[in-house]
Amino acid sequence: MRTKKALGWTAGMVALVAVAGLHGCGSDDTNTTTDSSTGGTTPPATTPPTTPPTVTPADAATASANIQAAWVEIGDGNQAIARAVTSYVAPADAGTNGVCPMLTVDGKATRMTLRVGPATVPLRTTASAPADSKPSEFPVSVCEATVASTATSAAIGTQTLPLPKALPQRIVVLADTGCRLKKADNAWQACSDTDAWPLSTVATTAAGFNPDLVLHIGDYHYRENACPPDIAGCQGSPWGYG
Fold this sequence. Notes:
By secondary structure, the chain is of the alpha+beta class. It is 14% helix and 26% strand.
Protein backbone atom coordinates (compact mmCIF):
# COMPACT_ATOMS: atom_id res chain seq x y z
CA MET A 1 0.00 0.00 0.00
CA ARG A 2 2.82 2.36 0.82
CA THR A 3 4.32 1.63 -2.55
CA LYS A 4 1.08 2.45 -4.32
CA LYS A 5 0.66 5.61 -2.24
CA ALA A 6 4.25 6.64 -2.97
CA LEU A 7 3.79 6.06 -6.66
CA GLY A 8 0.54 8.00 -6.60
CA TRP A 9 2.18 10.89 -4.73
CA THR A 10 5.09 10.92 -7.17
CA ALA A 11 2.77 10.90 -10.18
CA GLY A 12 0.79 13.75 -8.68
CA MET A 13 3.90 15.84 -8.15
CA VAL A 14 5.04 15.19 -11.72
CA ALA A 15 1.63 16.30 -12.95
CA LEU A 16 1.80 19.47 -10.84
CA VAL A 17 5.29 20.27 -12.10
CA ALA A 18 4.15 19.72 -15.68
CA VAL A 19 1.15 22.00 -15.18
CA ALA A 20 3.32 24.59 -13.48
CA GLY A 21 5.76 24.39 -16.37
CA LEU A 22 2.99 24.90 -18.89
CA HIS A 23 1.60 27.75 -16.83
CA GLY A 24 5.01 29.40 -16.67
CA CYS A 25 5.48 29.19 -20.44
CA GLY A 26 2.16 30.67 -21.37
CA SER A 27 1.29 32.96 -18.47
CA ASP A 28 1.96 36.63 -17.93
CA ASP A 29 2.04 36.10 -14.17
CA THR A 30 5.78 35.55 -13.99
CA ASN A 31 8.79 37.40 -15.42
CA THR A 32 11.46 35.04 -14.14
CA THR A 33 12.80 31.59 -14.86
CA THR A 34 14.39 29.11 -12.47
CA ASP A 35 18.17 28.96 -12.41
CA SER A 36 19.02 25.36 -11.46
CA SER A 37 22.66 26.17 -10.81
CA THR A 38 21.94 28.67 -8.05
CA GLY A 39 18.44 27.77 -7.00
CA GLY A 40 17.45 31.38 -7.57
CA THR A 41 15.78 33.18 -10.42
CA THR A 42 17.14 35.06 -13.43
CA PRO A 43 15.44 37.57 -15.71
CA PRO A 44 14.12 36.15 -18.97
CA ALA A 45 16.10 36.59 -22.15
CA THR A 46 15.29 39.83 -23.95
CA THR A 47 15.46 40.73 -27.63
CA PRO A 48 18.42 43.03 -28.39
CA PRO A 49 17.34 46.55 -29.39
CA THR A 50 17.14 47.12 -33.12
CA THR A 51 19.91 49.37 -34.45
CA PRO A 52 18.31 52.40 -36.10
CA PRO A 53 18.96 52.62 -39.86
CA THR A 54 21.81 54.81 -40.94
CA VAL A 55 20.57 58.01 -42.54
CA THR A 56 22.84 59.34 -45.27
CA PRO A 57 23.11 63.12 -44.88
CA ALA A 58 22.60 65.38 -47.88
CA ASP A 59 25.83 66.14 -49.73
CA ALA A 60 26.88 69.61 -48.60
CA ALA A 61 28.97 70.30 -51.69
CA THR A 62 25.90 69.76 -53.89
CA ALA A 63 23.60 72.10 -51.95
CA SER A 64 21.95 74.63 -54.26
CA ALA A 65 23.08 77.54 -52.09
CA ASN A 66 26.73 76.75 -52.97
CA ILE A 67 26.33 76.41 -56.74
CA GLN A 68 26.85 79.80 -58.37
CA ALA A 69 26.51 78.57 -61.96
CA ALA A 70 26.38 75.25 -63.83
CA TRP A 71 26.27 74.37 -67.51
CA VAL A 72 27.37 71.88 -70.18
CA GLU A 73 29.82 72.93 -72.89
CA ILE A 74 31.42 71.28 -75.89
CA GLY A 75 35.16 70.68 -75.59
CA ASP A 76 37.87 69.20 -77.79
CA GLY A 77 36.82 66.25 -79.89
CA ASN A 78 33.15 67.17 -79.50
CA GLN A 79 33.29 66.04 -75.86
CA ALA A 80 30.48 67.30 -73.63
CA ILE A 81 31.79 68.69 -70.32
CA ALA A 82 29.68 69.66 -67.32
CA ARG A 83 31.09 72.51 -65.26
CA ALA A 84 30.04 74.15 -62.03
CA VAL A 85 31.17 77.26 -60.16
CA THR A 86 30.84 76.75 -56.42
CA SER A 87 31.44 78.79 -53.28
CA TYR A 88 31.53 75.69 -51.06
CA VAL A 89 34.49 75.38 -48.68
CA ALA A 90 35.20 71.73 -47.94
CA PRO A 91 36.60 70.36 -44.65
CA ALA A 92 40.37 70.02 -44.57
CA ASP A 93 40.20 66.21 -44.73
CA ALA A 94 37.76 66.09 -47.67
CA GLY A 95 40.45 65.60 -50.32
CA THR A 96 41.15 67.51 -53.51
CA ASN A 97 37.71 67.00 -55.03
CA GLY A 98 35.76 67.35 -51.78
CA VAL A 99 34.76 70.89 -52.73
CA CYS A 100 33.02 69.65 -55.88
CA PRO A 101 29.33 68.76 -56.18
CA MET A 102 27.89 65.45 -57.30
CA LEU A 103 26.88 65.19 -60.96
CA THR A 104 24.00 62.81 -61.61
CA VAL A 105 23.92 61.36 -65.13
CA ASP A 106 21.14 58.92 -66.01
CA GLY A 107 20.49 58.32 -62.33
CA LYS A 108 24.11 57.64 -61.33
CA ALA A 109 25.84 60.23 -59.12
CA THR A 110 29.61 60.80 -59.17
CA ARG A 111 31.80 63.48 -57.65
CA MET A 112 33.00 66.12 -60.11
CA THR A 113 36.72 66.90 -60.42
CA LEU A 114 38.31 70.15 -59.32
CA ARG A 115 39.45 72.21 -62.30
CA VAL A 116 40.73 75.21 -60.35
CA GLY A 117 40.35 76.30 -56.75
CA PRO A 118 40.13 79.71 -55.07
CA ALA A 119 43.16 81.90 -55.65
CA THR A 120 44.46 85.43 -55.91
CA VAL A 121 46.40 86.21 -59.07
CA PRO A 122 49.14 88.82 -58.53
CA LEU A 123 48.84 92.18 -60.23
CA ARG A 124 49.96 91.88 -63.83
CA THR A 125 50.92 94.43 -66.46
CA THR A 126 47.91 95.96 -68.21
CA ALA A 127 47.11 99.12 -70.15
CA SER A 128 46.25 100.75 -66.82
CA ALA A 129 48.72 102.22 -64.35
CA PRO A 130 49.48 99.94 -61.38
CA ALA A 131 47.72 102.41 -59.08
CA ASP A 132 44.51 101.87 -61.06
CA SER A 133 44.75 98.08 -61.05
CA LYS A 134 44.73 95.33 -58.43
CA PRO A 135 45.40 91.61 -58.00
CA SER A 136 42.58 89.40 -59.24
CA GLU A 137 40.70 87.55 -56.50
CA PHE A 138 38.80 84.35 -57.24
CA PRO A 139 36.97 83.21 -54.08
CA VAL A 140 35.21 80.32 -55.86
CA SER A 141 36.12 76.90 -57.27
CA VAL A 142 35.37 75.46 -60.69
CA CYS A 143 34.63 71.75 -61.05
CA GLU A 144 34.06 69.63 -64.13
CA ALA A 145 33.17 66.17 -65.41
CA THR A 146 32.83 64.68 -68.86
CA VAL A 147 29.39 63.55 -70.01
CA ALA A 148 28.98 60.60 -72.36
CA SER A 149 27.33 61.27 -75.71
CA THR A 150 24.79 58.56 -74.88
CA ALA A 151 23.58 60.35 -71.74
CA THR A 152 19.91 61.25 -71.66
CA SER A 153 19.82 63.34 -68.47
CA ALA A 154 22.19 65.26 -66.21
CA ALA A 155 21.74 67.29 -63.04
CA ILE A 156 23.64 68.86 -60.17
CA GLY A 157 21.42 68.64 -57.14
CA THR A 158 18.03 70.00 -58.15
CA GLN A 159 19.37 71.82 -61.22
CA THR A 160 18.82 70.02 -64.51
CA LEU A 161 21.54 70.57 -67.11
CA PRO A 162 20.60 70.71 -70.81
CA LEU A 163 22.59 68.22 -72.87
CA PRO A 164 23.98 68.75 -76.39
CA LYS A 165 21.93 67.56 -79.32
CA ALA A 166 23.55 65.62 -82.13
CA LEU A 167 21.85 67.83 -84.73
CA PRO A 168 21.16 71.25 -83.19
CA GLN A 169 18.38 73.10 -84.99
CA ARG A 170 18.04 76.31 -82.94
CA ILE A 171 21.32 78.17 -82.33
CA VAL A 172 21.96 81.41 -80.41
CA VAL A 173 25.15 83.41 -81.12
CA LEU A 174 26.43 86.00 -78.63
CA ALA A 175 29.49 88.27 -78.69
CA ASP A 176 30.92 91.44 -77.14
CA THR A 177 28.84 91.08 -73.98
CA GLY A 178 31.24 92.88 -71.62
CA CYS A 179 30.56 96.21 -69.93
CA ARG A 180 33.35 98.76 -70.33
CA LEU A 181 35.02 100.49 -67.38
CA LYS A 182 38.32 101.86 -68.69
CA LYS A 183 40.09 104.92 -67.34
CA ALA A 184 42.54 105.22 -70.26
CA ASP A 185 39.61 105.82 -72.64
CA ASN A 186 37.48 107.69 -70.09
CA ALA A 187 34.87 105.04 -70.84
CA TRP A 188 32.45 104.44 -67.99
CA GLN A 189 29.49 102.43 -69.14
CA ALA A 190 26.46 102.27 -66.84
CA CYS A 191 26.83 98.57 -66.04
CA SER A 192 23.98 98.70 -63.51
CA ASP A 193 21.54 100.09 -66.09
CA THR A 194 19.81 97.39 -68.14
CA ASP A 195 19.12 99.91 -70.91
CA ALA A 196 22.76 100.99 -71.19
CA TRP A 197 24.05 97.43 -70.81
CA PRO A 198 21.17 95.09 -71.77
CA LEU A 199 22.95 91.74 -71.46
CA SER A 200 20.45 90.39 -68.92
CA THR A 201 17.56 91.29 -71.22
CA VAL A 202 19.28 89.73 -74.23
CA ALA A 203 20.15 86.57 -72.28
CA THR A 204 16.59 86.18 -70.99
CA THR A 205 15.20 86.59 -74.49
CA ALA A 206 17.69 84.08 -75.91
CA ALA A 207 16.86 81.53 -73.21
CA GLY A 208 13.19 81.92 -74.09
CA PHE A 209 13.93 80.45 -77.53
CA ASN A 210 15.02 77.22 -75.80
CA PRO A 211 18.12 76.94 -78.02
CA ASP A 212 19.81 73.63 -78.79
CA LEU A 213 23.22 75.34 -78.81
CA VAL A 214 24.63 78.67 -77.60
CA LEU A 215 27.83 80.06 -79.14
CA HIS A 216 29.72 82.87 -77.41
CA ILE A 217 32.44 83.99 -79.78
CA GLY A 218 34.40 86.22 -77.43
CA ASP A 219 34.94 89.49 -75.57
CA TYR A 220 33.38 88.89 -72.18
CA HIS A 221 35.07 91.43 -69.98
CA TYR A 222 36.08 95.09 -70.18
CA ARG A 223 35.87 96.20 -66.54
CA GLU A 224 39.51 97.16 -66.14
CA ASN A 225 39.21 99.92 -63.54
CA ALA A 226 37.05 100.93 -60.59
CA CYS A 227 33.96 103.01 -61.29
CA PRO A 228 34.59 106.67 -60.33
CA PRO A 229 32.48 107.97 -57.43
CA ASP A 230 30.75 110.54 -59.66
CA ILE A 231 29.42 107.99 -62.20
CA ALA A 232 26.12 106.75 -60.81
CA GLY A 233 25.47 104.07 -63.44
CA CYS A 234 28.36 101.79 -62.47
CA GLN A 235 28.57 102.17 -58.71
CA GLY A 236 29.35 98.91 -56.94
CA SER A 237 30.41 97.14 -60.12
CA PRO A 238 33.04 94.41 -59.84
CA TRP A 239 36.21 95.23 -61.73
CA GLY A 240 39.74 94.05 -62.43
CA TYR A 241 41.34 91.63 -64.84
CA GLY A 242 40.86 87.92 -64.32
